[in-house]
Amino acid sequence: MMEIVMWICGIMLGLATLACVIRVAKGPSILDRVLALDVMLLIISVALCLEMVYNRHTDYLLFVIAACTLGFIGSVTVSRYVSDQRNA
Amino acid sequence: MEMFLDILVAVLLILGCLMSLIAGIGLLTFPDMLTRMHAATKPQVLGFLLIFAGLAIHLRSWAVVPLLLLAWGMQLLTAPVSAHMIGRSGYRTKHAAKDSLYADELKQIVDKVSSTPATGAIDVSSKQAEKTED
Q: Which coarse location class describes where this protein primarily resides (chain A) (predicted)?
């Protein structure tokens, strides 16, 4: 049964990643891109959790926490230095 | 009991991944940045809660629960801050489409502060605003 669950979850995560990549490529402003990349990092954390479930180990827990912190620092830093180039 | 727990894990994992898919669809289809921000925060709190619950139940151990709670609590603390920063810089740089808003309560305050001549209280707040802009 776990096989089927993994397939369903993997397909859903793949579609979500594809949507994020399209938004990163299209996104009209840098903030849209930051948002989409943040979601992509969350999807990576979810995929790490799925791998831990499938192989029954806890090796990647710290990576999950690190990914959360990294996403936070990244989006805050980029949005702090965003400026309006059209009016500046 | 084992069977029940396995089914519970499967449901939790699928719902958690569904949150990510919803965020992806929202990112792709919503029209402007502020609505996309609304969609993007779905997997951050509820999705992670479901996935972490599924992981802890599947491993059948209490030892991972503190670490998972740490990761989830960190998400809970940092998600509003980063959303606030992105929304704030979007509002200031006109990346957020302001003409699509139904109500813009911040605009009244900004107009009020920028139009009134400098008196004590307003002066302090506008100075603070300048400081934060630096």
A: membrane
